[in-house]
Amino acid sequence: MRAVDMVEDAGYTPVEAVGADEAIAILESRSDIALMCTDIQMPGSMDGLGLAQTVHKRWPSIKIIVVSGQLNPPRTDLPACSRFFAKPLEAGQMIAEMHSMIGHT
Length: 105
Prior knowledge:
Layout: H1 3-9, H2 20-29, E1 35-39, H3 48-58, E2 63-68, E3 83-86, H4 91-102
Parallel strand pairs: 1-2, 2-3
């Protein structure tokens, strides 16, 4: 199941970005983003860990979920209060974590 489907199944409205640069542009243009989910390996000027760190510094209220099918980042690479999930993602666990992080809709 795709992460976007999980976001919808959790009752939220997903906004997709192709890479880190587009994600930053979206966040700069919107004030209604409560949670960001990123893969560590992604296109753009930074990887998912760099994106997570940048988002945490610029928008500290945004909760962050980092996923990867290949890499387990050291805890020191993850921003405070973010969560890491290894792929394949388990839908029930991801949805429960989203609800825990930002509440039910």
